[in-house]
Task: structure prediction
Amino acid sequence: MDHRAECTEYAGLTRRQVLGGALAGAAGLSCGGAALASALAAHRGEPGKARSVIQIWLWGGPCHIDTFDPKPGAGPDYTGPLDRAIPTNVDGIQIGELLPELAKQAHRYSLIRGMTHGINGHETASYLVQTGQQPGTGLVYPGVGAVVSLFKGYSAGYKGLIPPYIVLTQLQGRFSEPGFLGYRAKPFATGGDPNAPRFAVEGVVAAGITEQRQRNRRELLHRLDTLRNAIPRDSHIAALARSEDQAYDLILGDAGKVFNPAEESEEVRSLYGRNTFGQSCLVARRLVEKGVPMVTINFQGWDTHRQHFQIMRQKLPQLDRGLAALLQDLDSRGLLASTLIWCGGEFGRSPRVQWEAPWNGGRNHHGAVFSVLVAGGGFRGGHVVGASDARGEAVKERPVYPVDLIRSMYELLGIDPQARLPHPQGLDVRVAGDYTREGGRLSEIM
Result:
């Protein structure tokens, strides 16, 4: 199916309209509503250990050698200046030298070092890692976030004003998150910066506009709304009024405050790191604490063809501090057992450093082998799954394909991989799809 033939798109819609669509809530408002209702009613997944997912998407592809699969013996052409591996608090597991806080948390997470798919293009690799499906099949499959928001959101009776699928802070733009599921499965991207003095969530918190000014605007709108005043008992007008009340409850009421990290103590905010990524992790914790099923943190800037090591010295300490704080904070609040953490990108980076011009110390794309960190929600900590070879160039043992990880997460979430997805043309499409290249469920850590 051509992507252009999807039943609904977001082109031309403002974020306020998107949010309004999420608040509207009725499946019949989007095309395929009957199919959606039928599919959700038919879902009979087993009760899952996990309630929510926090995905940390390292957009552009992080280097496995510099992060979760160090190779100190490979030599400077492979390690560059980051030539040390540091021990973690789990015997036998070492990680990159710029991740000392995560080294203290290894009992809470496991590393998959045998991830592979062999694709080196951003768009196709992102699609494959996010959906588990091979590109070019004629169908545009939904990503994990869209599937989780359907089966752990609407199917599970989710009724919060906050949409069930949140992206902090920008959409990736590498693939269609909802695929053929269309409008209702689209994530709500917050925009803004949670580390700013005021986190301006698009459609919820307007930069430079106080709450009092928002109230004054609403009062003025009501005075000018002659149609509403003329027929106040009309059912359509009443429905619009209810939607408006919900929207303003999100903007001015308690619901929208979940996005405000300033409600946390300065000690907690500092624990996560006072930067955009660290505060995004804090907001993600606040969201899952309120029951939001799917949160993606889009941590950009990992496509390091040039100045790789300079960039790593900036980004890795932020990743280290923010993710370590998230793991510790979730665990201390009793939330880690019900929250899946999924941290990785679309591929790794070339093990051999490109010292020659014009790269001058960069790393290219590398889909042959890469690493992913998982934690919580039923995944056991303190383990390593699979291995790369001595230089991190290929899988040495236990290949893990994206579909293996995704199906394992669905199992922990209680989502039946054979459940039918609503398709606008009525095609029989299942959650797990029809992808045959696989290594099997992650039984080592489940």
Notes: Residues 1-18, 20-32 have pLDDT under 50 and may be disordered. Residues 226 and 232 are 10 Å apart (CA to CA). Residues 308-332 form the longest helix (25 residues).
